[in-house]
Amino acid sequence: MPPAPAMQRVIGAMTMRLGNVSVGVSRKLPNSEDMGRLRVAQFGQAPYRADMPSELWQPDELAGFERLVLPLPAEGDGELVATLVRRKRELAPTAPRGVVLYIHGYVDYFFQVHLADAFTQAGYDFHALDLRRYGRSLRPGNVHCQFARIDDYFLELTWAIESCTASGLPLSSLVAHSTGCLVASIYASRGARKDVIGSLVLNSPFFEFRANAVEKAALAAVIRLCRRSARPSASTACTGRPSTKASQANGPTT
Questions:
Q1: For 194-248, what is each residue's pLDDT tens digit?
Q2: Does residue 181 lie in a domain region?
Q3: Cystine design at 83: which of 79, 109, 126, 130 (Cβ 3.0–4.6 Å)?
């Protein structure tokens, strides 16, 4: 199902639409160990539900936005969470026709207010997900941006999709940038809620390193070494505390 004309106008020259995935009508929840862990995640004393009450959404650092935090099972570097950000619905000029969910790239987080504004003006309910160890989801002790498998992100992606479509609106597009395109594409192939994704919109996608077999083997060895010696630092590149200046600068991300 191709995006509506309004969606195509928003995408414009800033993104490259590489194709669609099928849209399904089934709302049956997956019966998997990962989803079982997700169901028992706690918001204070209240168990997780896809249609979390509006009072659990808290004001975000970006004016006109609010956020919802999902606690995830802790790992060796401490507490893990994911953070869903959305434009406040009362600011939308018209009733939305669908939902857009944005996934950031590497050493990145959501701060692109102009992107949210464009989709909102086109009639879409805009959401963005800060993945674990990125941006708003970075916690003390976390190793910035580290992950072992792409599938690790499926837990928060499923939660985000269920949360932003709980109102009954369809997920018109999963929009992603850079390495977020790799996450989004693999999820659209085998994620628990792949059948509700209307289309993929991939901006400057990263899928693999351009290297031969020898170079890739050497790179893998370096990555393993860096992972063993990684220590949390005070880097601001991934802290995800967007200021008004940063949100309007539209600076480069990877």
A1: 999 999 999 988 887 676 777 778 877 887 787 666 554 434 334 444 444 344 3
A2: yes
A3: 130
Which DSSP category does 30 fall into?
Answer: P
216-226 confidence digits (pLDDT tens): 788 778 877 87
What is the spatial distance between Cα 221 and Cα 30, in angstroms, rounded to a whole number? 36
Whether 15 maps to a domain, the answer reads yes
Q: Does a structural domain hold residue 17?
A: yes
* Residue 153 and residue 137 in contact, taking contact as beta carbons nearer than 8 Å: no
Which three-class secondary structure string do you get for 181-198? Answer: HHHHHHHHHHCCCHHHEC
Those residues whose C-beta lies under 8 Å from the C-beta of residue 40, and which sit 6 or more positions away, are 47, 48
Maximum distance among all Cα pairs of the chain, rounded to whole angstroms? 54
| DSSP 8-state symbol, 8 | H
Give me the CATH number covering residue 176.
Answer: 3.40.50
Dihedral pair phi/psi, residue 214, rounded to 5°: -65, -45
Amino acid identity, position 22? S
The pLDDT value recorded for residue 157 is: 96
Match 């099972």 to its residue by tokens: 73
Domain of residue 116: give its range: 5-249
Tens digits of residue pLDDT in 42-52: 333 333 444 45
- The verdict on residue 76 lying in a domain is yes
Q: Which two tokens stand for residue 111?
A: 């701060």
Strands 78-87 and 16-19, sheet pairing = unpaired
User: Structurally, how many domains does the chain consist of?
Assistant: 1
